[in-house]
Amino acid sequence: MIKALLFDLDGTLIDTNELILKSFKYALNEKLNADVSDEVIKTFFGEPLTKTLCRYSENVEEVVSIYREYNKLHHDKLCKEFSGVKEALKLFKEKGLAVAVVTSKVKPMALRGLDLTGLGDYIDVIITPEDTENHKPKGEPAEKACELLGIATKEAIMIGDSFYDILCGKDAGCYTAAVSYTSLPLDMLKKHDPDYVIDNILELLEIVENINKESA
């Protein structure tokens, strides 16, 4: 019986793809003089920031600070919800489903994105890196969300645009769904065997209905 939907934030509920790409390019290309292509940078989407940037600098905290300064400065201009997300979240709530955000984004910026887009009104639980010792792709963030919602992990679907989301959900024992509108090569996500691949998050309603029928 599915009782909750656990969503990644950036690239899944809100479109920050341009913001993230520009933030990486500023930190890597302009500050470190590292010639990193857009295609390579996009493969880092969904990965914890320190893991990405330590590939290019031993002084990773300084580069993270540069990235976050640029990201924060341009966030509101380049952040928007994906079309139809707000209506979908409202419908999920009307159907009695709990909704959580499980993100690698630090809490202040995650809350800022949710407030800016008006999606925060539909979110029951928000899990950010500050809330767990282990982060994606480990299952602890999804486990923590389920704990706070008072459900078993097998009663949730983890949805995201990165294989880190899929691995997190699988490690926690959740069902998993990858969104096809990811900026990453879709084949990269499919290699990690998500239970579902969806074009629109509204498809989750039918998925939940089918799983719950089978459970009954």
Automatic annotation (TrEMBL):
GO terms for molecular function: inorganic diphosphate phosphatase activity. Its EC number is 3.6.1.1. Coiled coil: none annotated. Keywords: Hydrolase. Pfam families: HAD_2. This is Pyrophosphatase PpaX. It comes from Clostridium simiarum.
